[in-house]
Amino acid sequence: QVHLVESGGGLVQAGGSLRLSCAASGRTLSVNAMGWHRQAPGKQRELVATISRLGTTKYAGSVKGRFTISRDNAKNTVYLQMNSLNPEDTAVYYCNAEDWAATNYWGQGTQVTVSS
Questions:
Q1: Which of 8, 27, 64, 86: CA 20 to 30 A from 49?
Q2: Rounded to whole angstroms, how far apart are CA atoms 82 and 19?
């Protein structure tokens, strides 16, 4: 089992920045990819960004150039630096980890609210 705990959400004005963190514990050596998804009210959960253990990244088109995902394998932590936030980024952000057996683990979510 892998346990994920997110932090760093909050309220920010449009144009502002936030940094999310997600710390993994448990069977962390089994984790390959980590990432962030988000779910806005009335919408399906969507991929925001992922990063492999070796550092290969992937971004949703809507956040490319504004968000940066990074990872510290020594600390078993993944980060999401979010810049130039806009109200459409308002959502609950969930940390995700996938192990080598393709089992997915999820954090409890952290709220990000961007005011106009």
A1: 27
A2: 6
